[in-house]
Amino acid sequence: MQTSPAVTSASGFVEAEVLGGFWSIVDGASMELLMFAVAVVGYFVLFMHRIPVNPKLASKKKMMNEDFKQKDYTKGTHTKTNVVETKKPARVERPPAKDNDVAKQITMIRNCAIENNLKGAVAIFESMVASGVEMNSIIYNTVLDACVECRDLKAAEAWMEQTKKAGMTDVVSFNVLIKAHLQTGHFEKARGLMEEMKKVGLQPNRVTFNELINAMVNKGGAANRRQMWDIIDEMKVADAKANQVTISILLKTLNSYSSQTEITKTMDLIDTMDEPMDEVLLSSVVEACVRIGQPDLLAAKLKQLRDSPTPIAISGSHTYGSLIKAYGRAQDINGIWRCWKEMRSSHIKPTSITLGCMVEAIVSNADTEGAYDLVQQIRDDEQCRGALNDVIYCSILKGFTRERKMDRALAVYEESKDQNIDLSVVMYNTLLDGCARCGRMEQVAIILEDMKTHKIKANVITFSTLIKGHCQNGDIQSAFRILEQMKKDTPLKPDEIMYNSLLDGCAQNNLVDEGLRLLEEMQSEGVQPSNFTLSVLVKLMNRARRLDQAFSLVEQITKTYNFRPNVHVYTNLMQACVSNQQLARGMSMLEQMIQERVAPDSRTYAILVRGNMSKGFLEEAVGLLKGALGLPCALPFLQQPLAVCWNFDSAVVNEALWSLAEWGHAKDLAIPLLTDIRQNAPKVRIDAATQRKVMDPCIASNEGYQRQSKGKGKGKGSW
Fold it and tell me: Is the pTM higher than 0.70?
């Protein structure tokens, strides 16, 4: 069968077209293969260059890794031996390790230390040596720190010797070992390491000194504080200036019992820092000033910080809270609001703690309504209303109860319930205390019923507050019933405050026998009497005219419980002596008080001065006043700094000067005393009326003398 030319040509065209498509496919595939090959080569060049060229080295590396896995160093196990030894590996020619590999292995050593796995840390070090890593001080110090972190001091000392042999010791090495000795209380060994540092030509740095100072602070005690300051002096000699860490450590030691010298030295060191104060240190400084409790120092430091040419940038709500608390203690209401407005203008959201500091600061400065208005503003702010809590509302309640605004306090309580604030026993105790303060005991039943409704259980403070309230309102029988109810219905036991409140109620109602029975019960329940208990007991015995029994109770209880009477006990004993017409015994108590190194207060002197004035013992009264004010010619046993009362009430001085003038002793006693006060105690305020009263006899005498002289001048006289 013949094929037509048209068919033949068509078939050839199709065949050519098919072959052309095939070769185009092959050509495209070859290009893709070529690009894949280039990519593979590039991958090996960029990422696989760490593989050793020598296959023998590669096989050895694989064997070493497998051996490391078999030993299972990753599990945290303690070494049985305290001395760390490293094997000397066979010298193997290797390419130098990369920096990032070394950093990873150092991180692995540190992780082993955190896991308390000292064996693993040493094994990693050995693997680094075996792999030809160039050793340096950082690697050795990391292992040394691992020994310290694992609390293996002997291993740390052994590793230090190995570090010395390798010539890798530096200041960090010594600091790590010094820290280890300080943690175990070996202060002398730490000091010995410092001397060794100097011998090898290394100078202790700030880290060294800060570790020593911190150890002294943690140990506590007067002797360690003196040693702490010796270290600071040594630090100055070494030209290692105090930094923020140094100051922070020292600030932790400051409180209301700190000496003025320590306070001044610490504050002066702040100015010697060679680095700017940051936000954290600022917070530490103001909190220390608050703990010290010296308003003048606090105000001065706040002014210094505020007027600093380089203001500290504050970004945290906590720091503003510390500043607000400090301004509150300094009674600087403008400073309180300035801090708050600055924080809000910086768009810093207040936390519950910061808001609590703000409310408490305003309330403590007698502006409870202002604090309440602030709470209303926060409540209306969607972003900040979550910071409101029961503690903040309690501060408002305390403020209103102190101001005796019980109705306002109850209204705030109702509002807190409406706002779904978590109610606490502290809030209810605050309300009950307000009822006691304001004489609104009729509200107590309603508040107690609310407590039951909200399933808030009463605690010892609740019952103690109720007892105190009934005692203050003269209802001692109700107080005793509450005590019995608590014993019967709850597992709670009376504490010292509760017994003292009941004893004070017995004293007010002259219930001596009930008071003595309470004292016996108190001791049988294992509640130790305190100086407050003694002062109440002395008051109870005084009102019952049992002076000898008062002295006997004080002597008996102080010996039994091994404590000394304080100024309040002594003062109440003196008041009892004066009330029972035994002034001489009261004066002897003052002398005994001074011998016992107990400083008299304003009330002590006022009782004895008035007692002597009433008996006509004017010279003794003047001698007491001179002793209280630190004037010359005081009574002999008062001629010492301890006897001086720096806050002596000026009203007592004015009263005494007036009485001296009334007794007709203005010239011989009142005027000399007034002169001494002006010269030696200018801060004592003498009223103008008192001055006129004292000076009147002199003025009258001068006027009489002038009239007499003038009369003689008019006469003719004779020669």
Answer: no
